[in-house]
């Protein structure tokens, strides 16, 4: 095991002063150390492709960059690795975690990527090696990486396994932008004195989504896990991977079953990762689609690293993208207004600011992902049949 501080210092000796990426629980020590280091620049990227491009930009400007990511996000990075860093010959150091390690028990959504990570990097012409297990091997590994990047002007990757890096420093230092965005027009709701927790918001959503008349799609991480712990219902789908895709899934369901109320429950990190889908939902979504962002300002399930949501008006973005109603508040009243609103043309949206933190840590859903999917699909099939028979959802 290597101390994150030692890794940071050894990379700094090689000129790497710019770090960017998307959190993974395996990377928590390294990210927290990078955030806390006074001589480093850390940028929390919205997705892994953005991280590669941002690190490449720093390199073009004379600052060696490191892009770090979970291997499940390697797919997001394929395009910039194939058509940006490869084409323009921009060397970026990659640190990619190995979730889905075949020798360990891991979450089912990581199984395939765990088996093909090194093969994918090879197909992208990115040489890779196992992250060094011992401090004594670190120097030689970094020298090999730097030698390749100097000779080819192309990226090099380390594949980091669980427990490869540790850090005993401060657990978290926020560096999110301090500027605050203002939503469009009068769509901002008044703030209450105490923002709700995620669990409180999810309970209110459960109350507003009767099982026989709605479908709820919850984003990856603690949102789906807490929802399952509160009420594990047939009308709920927990997106265990594919961060940021909950609203896309919900759009497809809502278009296929226009008489069913479909609710996408997003997080701020997930919404930022796939913000382009706001425009797609606004353009195609009907009035049966409800999109909610529970915004606690952090990547909760990976250690509480800050997002940039304080600098973003999600409601303003939703309004500009054509949503029929866009609210923003830190009170549960906004959810009541969202669900009760009548004569809304197009999808409706609310960004609810919630308190970070979870106690206790929510358990995994009781069913395997494929079982949840089968149950959810059967629920949709029954609702489609009821609609065909003339029942009102």
A few lines on this structure:
The protein has helices at residues 4-13, 28-36, 48-60, 74-88, 111-123, 138-152, 198-208, 222-230, 246-256, 268-273, 276-284, 314-320, 333-340, 369-388, and strands spanning 2-3, 16-21, 41-44, 64-70, 93-97, 128-130, 156-160, 165-166, 214-218, 236-238, 261-267, 289-295, 298-299, 305-306, 325-329, 348-353. With 393 residues, it is α/β, with parallel strands linked by helices. Residues 185-192 have low confidence and may be disordered.
Structural notes for this entry:
The chain is α/β, with parallel strands linked by helices and 393 residues long. The protein has helices at residues 4-13, 28-36, 48-60, 74-88, 111-123, 138-152, 198-208, 222-230, 246-256, 268-273, 276-284, 314-320, 333-340, 369-388, and strands spanning 2-3, 16-21, 41-44, 64-70, 93-97, 128-130, 156-160, 165-166, 214-218, 236-238, 261-267, 289-295, 298-299, 305-306, 325-329, 348-353. Helix 1 packs across helix 2 and helix 9 runs parallel beside helix 11. The longest helix has 20 residues, at 369-388. The chain is elongated. Residues 185-192 have low confidence and may be disordered.
């Amino acid at each position: 095991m290597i101390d994150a501080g030692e890794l940071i210092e050894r990379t700094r000796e090689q000129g790497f002063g710019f770090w960017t990426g998307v959190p993974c629980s395996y990377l928590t020590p390294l990210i927290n150390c990078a955030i806390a280091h006074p001589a480093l620049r850390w940028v929390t990227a919205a997705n892994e492709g953005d991280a590669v491009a941002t690190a490449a930009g720093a390199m073009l400007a004379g600052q060696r960059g490191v892009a770090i990511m979970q291997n499940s996000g390697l797919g997001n990075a394929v395009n910039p690795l194939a058509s940006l860093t490869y084409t323009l010959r921009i060397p970026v150091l990659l640190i990619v975690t190995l979730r889905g390690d075949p020798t360990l028990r891991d979450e089912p959504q990581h199984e395939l990527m765990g088996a093909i990570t090194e093969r994918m990097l090879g197909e992208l012409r990115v040489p890779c090696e196992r992250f060094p297990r011992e401090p004594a091997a670190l120097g030689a590994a970094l020298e090999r990486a730097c030698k390749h990047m100097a000779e080819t002007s192309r990226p090099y990757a380390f594949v980091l396994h669980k427990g490869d890096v540790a850090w005993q420093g401060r657990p978290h230092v926020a560096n999110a932008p301090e500027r605050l965005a203002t939503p469009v027009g009068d769509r901002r709701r008044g703030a209450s004195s105490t923002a709700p927790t995620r669990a409180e918001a999810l309970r209110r959503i459960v109350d507003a989504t009767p099982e026989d008349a709605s479908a709820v799609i919850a984003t990856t991480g603690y949102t789906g896990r807490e929802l399952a712990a509160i009420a594990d219902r047939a009308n709920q789908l927990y997106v265990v991977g594919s961060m940021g895709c909950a609203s896309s899934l919900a759009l497809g369901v809502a278009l296929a079953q226009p008489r069913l109320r479909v609710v996408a429950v997003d997080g701020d990190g997930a919404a930022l990762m796939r913000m382009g889908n706001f425009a797609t939902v606004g353009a195609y979504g009907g009035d049966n689609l409800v999109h909610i962002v529970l915004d606690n300002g952090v990547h909760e399930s990976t250690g509480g690293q800050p997002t940039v949501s304080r600098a973003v008006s999600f409601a303003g973005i939703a309004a500009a993208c054509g949503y029929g109603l866009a609210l923003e508040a830190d009170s549960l009243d906004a959810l009541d207004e969202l669900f009760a609103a009548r004569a809304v043309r197009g999808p409706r949206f609310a960004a609810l600011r919630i308190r970070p933190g979870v106690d206790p840590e929510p358990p995994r859903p009781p069913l395997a992902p494929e079982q949840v999917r089968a149950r959810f699909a059967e629920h949709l099939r029954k609702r489609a049949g009821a609609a065909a028979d003339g029942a009102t959802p």
